[in-house]
Write a structure and sequence with these properties.
Blueprint: H1 3-22, H2 41-51, E1 55-58, H3 67-71, H4 78-90, E2 95-99, H5 102-107, H6 109-125, E3 129-136, H7 167-170, H8 174-189, E4 195-202, H9 214-227, E5 233-234, H10 243-252, E6 256-259, H11 264-274, E7 281-285, H12 295-304, E8 308-312, H13 352-361
Helix pairs in contact: 1-10, 1-11, 4-6, 8-9, 9-10, 12-13
Amino acid sequence: MGKANLLILLVVAAFSACQNQTQKVGQRSEGTEPVKQKWTVDQANSWEEEHGWLRGSNFNPRTAINQLEMWQSETFDPETIDQELGWAEEIGLNCMRVYLHHVAWEVDKEGFKDRMSQYLDIADSHGIKTIFVFFDDCWNPIYEAGKQPDPKPGVHNSGWVRDPGELIFLDENLMPLLEEYVKDILTAFKDDKRIAIWDLYNEPGNNRLGNSSMPLLRNVFRWGWEVRPSQPLSAGVWNVQLTDLNRFQLENSDIVTYHNYKGPEEHQAAIDTLKLIGRPMVCTEYMARRNNSLFTNIMPILKKENIGAINWGLVAGRSNTKYAWDEPIPDGSEPSLWFHEIFHPDGTPYSQEEVELIKNLTKVQ
C-alpha cells in the first residue's frame, strides 16, 4: 500500500474515532483510565480564531548545543535569547517552538520554572507566542546534568539529547518522576496566554523505538488531561509507517500538528489528508533546503491553508543544524547549502531573498 493511501486510511479511522470519543468526554471508562478531556471541535476552532496564523521557528539560542544547555542555570542566556527573538520579530515571526528537558527541572525545579518565566517574558516583549515540547525521541539516548559537550565539527545536532531516552527502559522509578514533572509544569503555566500549544512528545517512535514509545505517549496525554490546561495538547505525526502511534496521536490531540520535510507536492498531499480530521493544523517542523522544503515553496502554501508554519532553526550556532542530517563535514567548513536556519550568528540573513519573502508573507514593511 502506498504511503498516501495508508495515511488517508489512518486519518479516516482517526476521524471516525474522534467523532465517537467526543461524546465520551467527561465520562469515566471502566478500570483506571482517566476522564478524557480532549477539546471539542468548537473549542479548537475558537483557539484558532484567537491566535490567527502562527509562523516561526524551532528555537534554541546559538549559545546552546541542546535543551540542557539552554535551560540549566549556569548556561541560561537571556541576553542572546532577547537578541535572537528581536531578529525574529523584525521579520514578522510570532511563535517559537522550544524544547524542555526533565533533568533541568529535576536538578532545580523552582529555578527551572523561573527561567521558563524569564523566557516567556522575553518572547512576549517581542510579540512571540511559545510552543513548549516535553519529550523527544531524537538524537542522543543518554545525557547528564552539568557541562554539556562541545559540538562535533560539521555534525548536525551532535549534542542534542532525547528525553527521557534510554533511562525510560532502565529505571522503574522514572515514570512517576516524569509524571510529577509534566504536571508541575502544566499546573504552573496552565493559564498562561503567552503559551500557544503544549507539544507533549516530539517524534515518538523515532530511532527505531516504534511502539515501545507508546506507554509514555499514553501517559503524557493522561497527565495532560488530569491538569487540563487552557492551551491545546498535541503530539505531531511525522512518519506514516508508525500506524499505532499516529492513530493515537490523531485521536487524542486537541489540534493537528505534524512534521513534513518534503517538497510542495508531497507536503500538499499530507495537508489535504490531515484536513479530513477537521481541526486546526500547525506544521511544527519543515524547511530543509537540500530536500526542496523551502520558505519559497512551502511557507506560501501554509499561509494559504491557514496552517501554522514553524520551520527548523532560527540562528546558526552550537546545534550545527546548518549541516544536513546525514552529510557531516568533519573539518567544520561551511556547507555549500545550509540545511536549516535563517540567520548567521551576527544576525545577517543566510538568504536575503528568503527573508524578504518571509517579511512579505507576514506583512512586515
